[in-house]
């Protein structure tokens, strides 16, 4: 199975900060990577697919980049609604895998 | 409105069985692969398995931890997805999400149900 490693596991930030989360794949996944946001008690929500494509309805302050094995999710200016957990996921193989998650919390 | 609604969760003893259901609406169910994803309390997301559509012979894939204990099925005439779980272990305790898979893979999970809680405990 392809392993997905996210960093950091926890990130403390303030409203207005630029935030970057990294996801590394154990082998090349081309651009078959998605990012999800999850708030407590809620189902995950798709933010980014194919590494850099913004899902419909998602604010433009979210962006994704990368290919191969290194990927990043960037929030250009953190808003109060963005304090949540974020997960990357590879969907290139028969066995889909998620990263361990990054919790973005108030500084 | 595109929607997935899970049901069937609950408390079950170790070694027991449970069948989860997922009712889909608002989209052409038969056009999509369908997946199950779970999340143990306080933990991350974990893919459970997938069933492909009729054009792909309804073939299935499972995560390694399933080890023949779980079976995913679907009824396109009822727009329903199922997860039969046997030989349940305490570590299977989690919220189980029904997720819309791709119509033209590979693609990400764009629609999630609200989840149903499964607790395996004596």
Shape verdict of chain B: globular
**Using only CA atoms, what is the Rg of chain B?**
14 Å
- Basic shape of chain A: globular
Order of helices and strands of chain A: EEEEEEEEEEE
* Average pLDDT metric of chain A: 97
Number of continuous helical runs of chain B? 0
How far do the termini of chain A sit from each other? 35 Å
Q: Summarize the main sheet of chain B.
A: 7 strands, mixed
Share of helix of chain A, binned: under 10%
**pLDDT < 50 stretches of chain B:** none
Q: Look at the helices and sheets of chain A and give the structural class.
A: mainly beta
Summed over residues and divided by their number, the pLDDT of chain B gives a mean of 97
Which SSEs are present, and which pair or pack?
The complex is a heterodimer of chains A (107) and B (122).
Chain A: E1 4-7, E2 10-13, E3 19-25, E4 33-38, E5 45-49, E6 53-54, E7 62-67, E8 70-75, E9 85-90, E10 97-98, E11 102-106
Chain B: E1 3-7, E2 10-12, E3 18-25, E4 34-39, E5 45-51, E6 60-62, E7 70-75, E8 80-85, E9 94-100, E10 111-112, E11 116-120
Parallel strand pairs in B: 2-11
Antiparallel strand pairs in B: 1-3, 3-8, 4-5, 4-9, 5-6, 7-8, 9-10, 9-11
Give an overview of the whole structure.
The complex is a heterodimer of chains A (107) and B (122). With 107 residues, chain A is mainly β. Helices cover 0% and strands 50% of the residues of chain A. Chain A has no helices and 11 strands. The N and C termini of chain B lie far apart (39 Å). In chain B, the strands form 2 sheets. In chain B, strands 2, 4, 5, 6, 9, 10 and 11 form a 7-stranded mixed beta sheet that branches. A 4-stranded antiparallel beta sheet of chain B has the order 1-3-8-7, with no helix packed on it. In chain B, a hairpin with a 5-residue loop joins β4 and β5 (45-51). By secondary structure, chain B is mainly beta. Chain B is built from no helices and 11 strands. Helices cover 0% and strands 48% of the residues of chain B. The chains are: A mainly beta (107), B mainly beta (122). The A-B interface holds A 1, 32, 34, 36, 38, 43-46, 49-50, 55, 87, 89, 91-92, 94-101 and B 35, 44-47, 50, 61, 63-64, 97, 105-110, 112-115.
């Amino acid at each position: 199975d392809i392993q997905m490693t996210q960093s950091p596991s926890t990130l403390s930030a303030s409203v207005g900060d630029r935030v970057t989360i990294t996801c590394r794949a154990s082998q090349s996944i081309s651009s078959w990577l998605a990012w999800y946001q999850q708030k407590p008690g809620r189902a995950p929500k798709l933010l980014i697919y194919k590494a850099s494509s913004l899902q419909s309805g998602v604010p433009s302050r979210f962006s994704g980049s990368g290919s191969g094995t290194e990927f990043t999710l960037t929030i250009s200016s953190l808003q109060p609604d963005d304090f949540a957990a974020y997960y990357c996921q590879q969907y290139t193989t028969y066995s889909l895998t998620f990263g361990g998650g990054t919790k973005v919390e108030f500084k | 409105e595109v929607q997935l609604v899970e049901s069937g969760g609950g408390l079950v003893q170790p070694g027991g069985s449970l069948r989860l259901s997922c009712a889909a609406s608002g989209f052409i169910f038969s056009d999509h692969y369908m997946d199950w994803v779970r999340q143990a309390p306080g933990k991350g997301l974990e893919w459970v398995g997938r069933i492909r559509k009729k054009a792909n012979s309804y073939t299935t894939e499972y995560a390694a931890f399933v080890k023949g204990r779980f079976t995913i099925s679907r009824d396109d005439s009822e727009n329903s997805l199922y997860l039969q779980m046997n030989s349940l272990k305490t570590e299977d305790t989690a919220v189980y999400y029904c997720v819309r898979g791709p119509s033209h893979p590979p693609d990400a999970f764009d629609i999630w149900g609200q989840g149903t809680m499964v607790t395996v405990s004596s």
